[in-house]
Amino acid sequence: MPPLFNKQIPEIILGSASPRRKELLKKMGFSFTSHPVNIDESYPINIPAMEVAEYISKMKMLALFKVVNSDNKILLTADTTVCFENKIIGKPKNRDEAFSTLKTLSGKMHTVVSSCMIKFGEFEDVFSEKTIVYFNEISEKEITHYIDNHQPYDKAGSYGIQDWIGLVGIHKIDGSYNNVVGLPTDILYHKLINI
To answer: Which of the following is catalytic: 79, 125, 163, 186?
Structure first.
């Protein structure tokens, strides 16, 4: 099989433990090493909701850069936020919070922002993509079924578009599907191959 890229892509270190981001990056054709970083994902209250994902991506990059040898390597961090009525809906702390979040999103639209930061030597780039998601009305029984069977506690907004609820509860999206999963893949691909 011929090589996918016209040049040798430097080694990539992904600062994430997300199985969804790892799967997307692999499907894009990139080889990489995963090096999860644990940071405090709180943010200043004066940052607009649509810019929070970029802020957290930068904080993850600072943490990643401190703990890995970045010589001749591309460092990549990412964050995904769910924005509803100009407020961030984070990962649920418990079952009740997940239920409340999904009940709030039911029958309404919200925006998912996925941001990435790339660092390669002196080169740095931060970028984002937005996708608008339209939920159907979801019954309390459906919400309960989803939470009990899919445990969405590691997901912003208390859901994964690739899960059961995405199949039955999302009417349409305006923008990139993969962006909702966790990476703005089309933008990221072209950034990486042109470093």
So the answer is: 79
Does 111 reside within a domain?
A: yes
Among 41-45, 114-118, 130-134, 182-186, name the one with the lowest average pLDDT. Answer: 41-45
Q: What is the CATH number of the domain that holds 17?
A: 3.90.950.10
CB atoms within 10 A of CB 8: 7
Strands (E), 103-190: 109-120, 123-135, 170-174
pTM of this prediction exceeds 0.85: yes
Instruction: Give a yes or no: residue 48 inside a domain.
Output: yes
71 part of the active site = no
pLDDT at 4: 73
Q: Tell me the residue range of the domain where 116 lies.
A: 11-193
Tens-digit pLDDT profile for residues 46-77:
999 999 999 999 999 999 999 999 999 999 99
**What is the count of structural domains for the chain?**
1
